[in-house]
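I would like you to sit down with the pair of lines that follows and say whether tokens and residues agree.
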Amino acid sequence: MTTTASKPDTVQPEPLKLPWWSSGETNAFFGLGFNILVNVLVLSGLCIGVINISSSKVYGTILPALGIELLVGNVYYTYLARRLARKENRDTVTAMPYGPSVPHMFIVTFLIMLPVFLKTKDPLKAWETGLAWAFIIGVIVIMGAFVGPYVRKYTPRAAMLGTLAGISLTFISMRPAAQMWNTAWVALPVLIIILVGFFSNIKLPFGIPVGLAALLVGTAIGWAGGIMSVPDVTAAAKDIAVGLPTFQFHMLGQGLSSIGPLLATAIPLGIYNFTEGMTNVESAAAAGDKYNLRSVLLADGIGAIVGSALGSPFPPAVYIGHPGWKSAGGRTMYSLASGIAVALLCFLGLFGLIGALLPVPAIVPILLYIGLLIGAQAFKASPQAHYVAVVIAIIPNIASWAQGLIDNALGAAGTSAAKVGETALEQNSVIYHGLLILGSGAVLCGMVLGAIVAFIIDRNFIAATIYCLVAAGLSCVGIINAETVKWNASPGVTLGYIFAAVVCIAFALTKPTRREKEADELLMDAEEGIAG
């Protein structure tokens, strides 16, 4: 008689009981909430103070449109996070943070709307142009959703995280740091509370959330020190008015009717937007949460288009900082809670009052915290051999930031780099034109340079050659390292990349020595150790 061995019963894992809120969510909620709060206060000030859009239009149209973007986007990213958590059967998944794109706040204000306002003296015309620009950005990001996954697949992590670190150290960190040291007696105690709470993992008395404690301490010091004004609060309270979003198709159509001049900036900046989104997804993956890149980019692109139709010239985006909120305890709900809270403030017209109540130095240290964390992650999540690639990926963003700072300083003095002249600037150790070329398309340029260096370190000269040729093509049409988008936009840079490709291919054709083969094996072993 033949007996058939019965298969042992397989133990099925219990279905994940995913909580709607966990203890760490509160910390992350206050941290991200104040981050978004600062950004909305800044963009409101830019619209009113720089473009001269009336406060009633800003608080009654632009901010309610932004509120809708925050609600819809955060609902979607919460869904993605909870779906990923159930798929991987773990409750440590952190949602992608989402809000108005910080670099684009300044780009759309100073590069798009301000020139139109200065030319026409019409803030509404400038606003219409901003809406059209945001719409084009959204279209380009949606197109990038179908290209981005392939770029990410063949680009070293050091290159993507390095260029992201460049953004975080310059555009995210430097302005808040300057504001902090301008009023250090308010900001430094706030920064210490944030660093202790988020980096040392020391719990505050009575379980007070770190972000809330930091804000309360900074606000108390600011009011006690006399930098805040009661009359300002009284005046802001009179401007409170409920605003509900409505479609602004006419304004968008007016802006799109003059679409031609916008393409020169919208194309490279749209590519920048989807590149930043791609690097943010890679940053989240390095922290353990692997999101679908295409889903993220499609959401960002649709958000920009819908926002422009409602009247917001400020495209929303997945934020830099996922690892920071993850380490703070954020899981699937913190970003949605932050989005709901800020959206309600937008609808109720309370941002003028909040700006009068809260000292800026008490809020901005949270942005410096994010900059520190993202800068550190670029090195932590990359192989040690690729640290040089991380650094070179940072450099174009520093150049872009420095060039913008020079432009703003000269503009404040009533002049410009063109009026001062390249010779005069160079005689004072300001290599303005070099910063302009290096920093053009900084995010994409940093990623490409980082990839070239990483592949050279790995002795993968064929891949380095391909990236050199990609850089040559991008510079030829003005996407990177050029003053404008056009054919043969930067011939010297293009030729330089072609020569670099020739050198790389020459090394690729050279036979490796025995010592080089042994070094390659050691490098592979080291990388496997890091991956493990």
